[in-house]
């Protein structure tokens, strides 16, 4: 792989940036790795970067080498509270594209007020893991098309983004759905990590404002509460007023925020 040499202050060893793999770069100083850079292609084709460096000069050198080798646009995500890292990326030419709030969502119905949130007449809730894949995939396609026609599907969490060509990987074991008549009309996707994360909640546009989303949340959060889980995480784009109102209306609190930055 190619290497780039950077001069250091008088008396200090030079920093050598080497692309050690197709998507990995190392910064080496005096035979020590003092920084690492990685590039990953997300399901929608966008390339996201990460850099871990001992100090700002090495960050800049890694960034220069990576940006010279990779096609634009390029993206990265940082914790908004990490001002130093945000400044590092801005120094490399990145600008803020969007902000995503991270909410801590209580599961206790007494805290959420969802104990009485029943689905509307004619709508039933299909528990997590029990949805049929074919109608779930059809609902996902319809919702994706509706979102794409408005805010754009790229505003959704990364794990639900489609792969090139429009295909989307679906794992029915992570979805709870709302069914009406012979079709699915709404869904919630929950990632079962140590503290469960709500990655997506969506209802078909023709079924909005009927209480379906609240009923789905009531079912999912209630199930988590019965399992002894006190809270879940949810990520909400700051421009999504409906989702913000939904989560803040059930007692969720903003715990942190992430910034997505882009270099075009």
From TrEMBL:
PROSITE patterns, alphabetized: GNAT
Gene3D superfamilies registered for this protein in UniProt: 3.40.630.30
Entry-linked SUPFAM superfamilies: Acyl-CoA N-acyltransferases (Nat) (SSF55729)
Record-annotated N-acetyltransferase domain positions: 123-264
One Gene Ontology term of the molecular function aspect: acyltransferase activity, transferring groups other than amino-acyl groups
InterPro entries named in the record: Acyl_CoA_acyltransferase (IPR016181), GNAT_dom (IPR000182)
Transmembrane segments: none
Matching Pfam families: Acetyltransf_1
Annotated protein name in UniProt: Ribosomal-protein-alanine N-acetyltransferase
């Amino acid at each position: 792989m190619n290497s780039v040499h950077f001069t250091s202050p008088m008396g200090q060893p030079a920093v050598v940036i080497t692309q050690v793999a197709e998507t990995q770069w190392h910064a080496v100083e005096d035979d020590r790795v003092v920084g690492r850079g990685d590039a990953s292609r997300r399901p929608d084709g966008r390339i996201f970067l990460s850099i871990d460096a001992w100090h700002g000069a090495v960050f800049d050198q890694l960034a220069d080498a990576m940006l010279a080798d990779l096609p634009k646009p390029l993206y990265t995500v940082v914790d908004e509270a990490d001002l130093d890292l945000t400044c590092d990326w801005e120094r490399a030419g990145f600008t803020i594209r969007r902000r995503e709030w991270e909410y801590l969502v209580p599961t206790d119905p007494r805290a959420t007020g969802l104990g009485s949130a029943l689905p509307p007449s004619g709508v039933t809730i299909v528990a997590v893991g029990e949805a049929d894949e074919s109608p779930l995939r059809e609902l996902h396609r319809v919702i994706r098309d509706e979102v794409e026609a408005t805010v754009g599907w790229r505003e959704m969490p990364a794990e639900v983004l489609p792969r090139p060509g429009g295909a989307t990987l679906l794992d029915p074991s992570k979805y709870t759905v709302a069914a009406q008549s012979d079709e699915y009309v709404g869904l919630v996707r929950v990632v079962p990590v140590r503290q469960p994360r709500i990655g997506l909640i969506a209802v078909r546009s023709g079924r909005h404002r009927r209480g379906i989303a609240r009923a789905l949340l009531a079912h999912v959060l209630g199930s988590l509460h019965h399992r002894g889980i006190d809270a879940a995480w949810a990520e909400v784009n700051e421009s999504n007023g409906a989702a913000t109102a939904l989560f803040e209306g059930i007692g969720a609190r903003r715990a942190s925020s992430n910034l997505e930055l882009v270099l075009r």
